[in-house]
Write a structure and sequence with these properties.
- By secondary structure, this protein is an alpha+beta fold.
- About 35% of the residues lie in helices and about 25% in strands.
- It contains ten helices and 14 strands.
- A six-stranded mixed sheet has the order 7-6-11-10-9-8. A three-stranded antiparallel sheet has the order 1-3-4. A three-stranded antiparallel sheet has the order 12-14-13.
- Helix 2 packs across helix 8.
- The two termini are about 50 Å apart.
Length: about 350
């Protein structure tokens, strides 16, 4: 009897085959997956903190400082066979073993101390307000959201501690400024003198009588020089003269407090004194001022939500079909990143093998 034994080991080839799907090909996949995950978590965190503020709870923010993924693939395939000349005898064995390991390392940094003060409690600089207008964002949206007062004309505020409706001329002011902005007759200019930087708002309209009339009305409401074409913009509540625009801006925390005042809450929670009633704007007599962002509440999770979180026994969500609320909510997140100032530490550079 002649016996032939064949043993083949192809573990190395399996490892080489696995490496073909790692390395550079992981970049587009990982970048998309982590971007989507961080974006969704950021939206959830923003809405969650707005709801917490609505209920008198303290907001807590966590930054994703770094994301590092490391991959490891190993495997072995063993094939063994025994062949006899006898037809009634013969045997074979087949075995495979492999491991795939992914080790993501995600670093979270709580926004506390000096960073909390810079990011959440510092007023938004007036030049940032004008930059947003210059970039094409509607002036009525920017002012309703980020400005508390301009030359003594006050916006509304929904926070329970100092809730108040807007001055009657505020909405008329921002409506007229929106029309001037749409015509391209409003702009900005920066100048630097030694170490100081000055910001100017420029209002034109000589070629269009309708825009010229609107510009004159805006000047009257703000108490500005009717013949001046540009005005110095400063932070504050009271201008020095009729050629200056004093803008009292809000901090991000004040913006969140104001927007959260419009969140719909269960009536039972209001009756039980767990939360205050929803703020109602009373400044306009002939029309209704709708909330900038409509945030609903239900006892069950909404199936078609742009963002949804659970707080206590209630789901709070923004309807995915409410395009304006989605845009303004996303704009609020954008402003959150825009206003952070101060020096930041250099992020560590880490080289990780991917095969």
């Amino acid at each position: 009897m002649i016996r032939i034994k064949i043993i083949i080991s192809v573990g190395v080839s399996l490892v080489l085959f696995g490496c073909a799907g790692m390395g550079a090909p992981t970049v587009p996949r990982d970048r998309f997956d982590y971007t989507a995950a961080i974006s969704d978590s950021w939206k959830n965190q923003m809405l969650f903190n707005m709801v917490k503020i609505r209920y008198g709870d303290a907001p807590v923010f966590l930054d994703v400082s770094s994301v590092i993924s490391q991959y490891q693939l190993a495997g072995a395939l063993n094939l063994g066979a025994t062949i006899n000349y006898s037809p009634s005898s013969g045997s074979g064995t087949l075995g495979w073993a492999g491991t795939y390991v992914e080790r993501p390392t995600i670093t979270y940094t709580p926004i506390m101390g000096d960073k909390f003060a810079r990011s959440l409690m510092s007023p938004i600089p007036p030049p940032a307000i004008l930059s947003l207008m210059q970039a094409g964002y509607p002036v009525d949206l920017v002012f309703r959201l980020l400005v508390q007062e301009i030359n003594g004309v006050r916006n509304r505020f929904g926070g329970e501690a100092r809730a108040r409706s807007a001055d009657p001329e505020f909405y008329s002011l921002i409506e007229k400024m929106r029309q001037i902005q749409s015509s391209g007759a409003i702009g900005m200019r920066f100048t630097r003198k030694e170490k100081e930087e000055a910001t100017f708002m420029v209002m034109r309209g000589e070629r269009d009588p309708a825009i010229k009339a609107l510009s004159a009305e805006v000047r009257k409401i703000l108490g500005l020089d009717p013949n001046a074409k540009e005005f110095n913009v400063v932070y504050g509540a009271v201008p020095r003269d009729d050629k200056e625009i004093a803008i009292l801006t809000r901090s991000i925390l004040e913006v969140l407090i104001d927007v959260s005042a419009d969140i719909e809450v269960p009536a039972a929670h209001v009756e039980e004194k767990r939360v205050g009633s929803t703020h109602v704007e009373e400044a306009v007599k002939d029309g209704k001022i709708l909330p900038l962002v409509r945030i609903h509440s239900t006892s069950e999770k909404h199936k078609d939500a742009f963002v949804s979180i659970q707080y206590r026994d209630t789901y709070f969500w923004i309807d995915d079909r409410d395009l304006m609320s989605k845009k303004i909510f996303s704009f609020l997140m954008f402003v959150f990143t825009l206003v952070e100032t101060g020096e930041k530490g250099t992020a560590p550079i880490v080289t990780v093998p991917t095969n």
